[in-house]
Design a protein that fits this description.
This protein is of the alpha/beta class. The chain has 2 domains: about 5-55, no CATH class; about 55-220, Rossmann fold, CATH 3.40.50. Helices cover about 30% and strands about 30% of the residues. It has 7 helices and 11 strands. It has helices at about 10-15, 60-70, 85-95, 110-120, 135-140, 165-170, 190-200; strands at about 20-25, 35-40, 40-45, 50-55, 75-80, 100-105, 125-130, 145-150, 175-185, 205-210, 215-220. Strands 7-6-5-8-9-11-10 form a 7-stranded mixed sheet. Strands 1-2-3-4 form a 4-stranded antiparallel sheet. Strand 10 and strand 11 (about 215-220) form a beta hairpin. The longest helix is centred in the last third of the chain and has 14 residues, at about 190-200. It starts with 9 loop residues before the first helix and ends in a 6-residue tail after the last strand. The relative contact order is 0.13. The mean pLDDT is about 90.
């Protein structure tokens, strides 16, 4: 895929300001149906029923960056679990922040698209890693100032993401005083209540943002690493 707006016909760019315009289909072992779209002059990545990436207008990423803006000058290293086309990288850079980004994505097709897309414009250092986030975090030894957990199977957060073990691994992967953000969509009220309980147990000092249908946990790490 050539992410070059200059090579897209003008009529498609014009139509994109009225409705999303299909550009390409992709398939992978993880996602049998991925669509690349152009909407209002920006690239989107979507499944049949969910939007994985929306450039600088990706609502959960915008909510996280807005909430944490006073903290962002301290962020030298950011870990993103679940990449899409790298909307959060774009939002960070638009806000004037250029940490080192570690991008962990299970789907090799999505990761390849993200790196290709971001390489067109990013000034940041990118470390792409194609691996299951649960496995990656269990063995991770590198600490980061900010972790954004943005992992979905269509509109559902996989069960492992909200387990105490996984969240504890994320907590231990933060530098002292670091922040973690978790993007979530409520599909089941009972599971949502259980998620609230688990997250609060691992990260007692947290808040919840509302961004359209998304709920975003944000918390600080106060523990001292040994």
């Amino acid at each position: 895929m050539d992410f070059d707006l200059e090579k897209i016909p003008n009529y498609k760019k014009a139509i994109s300001y009225l409705r999303p315009v299909w550009l390409n289909n992709k398939t992978s072992d993880v996602n049998p149906h991925l669509e690349l779209l152009l909407y209002k002059g920006r690239f989107q990545l979507a499944t049949r029923d969910a939007l994985y990436s929306d450039g600088e207008y990706y609502t959960p990423g915008l909510a996280v960056i807005k909430c944490l803006k006073p903290f962002l000058p301290q962020v030298k290293s950011m870990l993103i679990l679940g990449v899409g086309l790298g909307s959060t990288v774009q939002i960070m850079e638009k806000a004037g922040f250029f940490p080192r980004f570690t991008l962990v994505e299970l789907d090799k097709v999505i990761l390849k698209l993200a790196v290709e897309f971001l390489s067109k414009s990013t000034k940041a250092v990118l470390e792409p890693i194609c691996e299951d986030a649960e496995v990656f975090m269990a063995g991770n030894k590198t600490r980061h100032d900010l972790i954004f957990i943005d992992i979905f199977d269509s509109r559902t957060v996989p069960d492992f993401v909200t387990t105490q073990d996984f969240l504890t691994h994320c907590k231990h992967s933060l530098n002292p005083g670091g922040r973690v953000a978790l993007n979530y969509i409520i599909n089941d009220e009972d599971k949502w209540k259980e998620t609230l309980k688990t997250f609060s147990k691992v990260f007692p000092d947290s808040e919840i943002l509302e961004a359209d249908i998304n709920r975003i946990f944000i918390s600080a790490a106060h523990q001292t690493h040994q």
